[in-house]
Structures are given as C-alpha cells and as structure tokens.
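Chapter review: from sequence to fold.
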Amino acid sequence: MIDENGNLIAEGFQEAARGAPVAQSALLLPFAGDPRKAPAAIIAAWFTAWWDWHVWIKRGKGAARKAYERVVRSGAATPEQLGAAADAYALWHKRNRSRQPIYPARWLDEERWGDDQTFGDAMSPEQQRSAAFDWAARNVKPRPRSSFADEYWSERAAKQRAARCADDPAAEARAEERAQQRRSG
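The token string follows.
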C-alpha cells in the first residue's frame, strides 16, 4: 500500500495508516531499513502499538506522540527497545506503588528507557524503618558512660543540693545519705 506521500507502507501497518486499531504484532513487524528514515505513517503505527500495549498510564498522548517520534527519528532507541523498557517500567511501578508514575511523554523526553528498573528498593515504609533499625544496631556505637551531658547534669544537681542545704547543715547530710542509697541500690 502507498500513502498520500508516495511512501510504501509495510504489510501489517496498513491498518494504522488508515487510522484503524493496530494489533500487538505491529511492533514485531520489522521495517526494512533504518527506523530513523521510516515514513510518518509507520512511526505513527509504532506509536499506536506502543501506546496500546506498553504504556502504563494513558495521559498526555499528544505530547507522548511527539516525543516518541523525536526519539525514533534521532535513533536514540528503537521501537522494540522502547516497548521492552516500557514494560519493565510498568512492572517496576506496579511494585513501587508509593511512587508517583511518570507520564509517557516525560519518560521519553528524559530517556528513561535506559534506567535500571531493579526491584531492590521496593520496600514498604515499615521495611525501610526496620532496615534502618537493623543498620543502626550494627553500626552505631554506644555512647560512653561519662559524657559532657552527664557531667553537666551531675554538676547542676550538686549545685542545687548545695543551694538547698546552705542554711541547714543536717539537710546536706540527709541528701548525701539519699544519694548513697540510690547509688547502692
């Protein structure tokens, strides 16, 4: 089939050129030649198949269409790479529900198809808290018994005791007895 510009449309992309829905197999059909030189109708068919079968959130279709064409025309990624990477991102997002999904146009503009979509950081807030406590138990050293704060508070207590007992010498003896009982007891 030949489109309005005289370009030959590959078998399987003819439905997309007419505006009909495209099957998933449209992405699997290779274009004979460099994808950067593909006719606009073929790129539109690739985009439609990518949007229908691989996109995780259907928002901003117009901007995504322009970004998709820009990526394919620049040769930064092939339609097959974009499809596989979009599937990986959709799976990653499904496991990381607490994170806001990236819209497809931004995903394409930021070249996110090259991101590492591992699942190592897919922890719930409870798991993150537990991991932090485990790390602290392994890595944080206990504070020495005599620290600046301990010295400060013991001096302050001694000054207060001295102020209370300044008028009554027997009160000082009683306070000292109570302090010894606390220490021994």
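Two observations follow directly from the output. Residues 10-17, 20-29 have pLDDT under 50 and may be disordered. Residues 14-114 form one domain.
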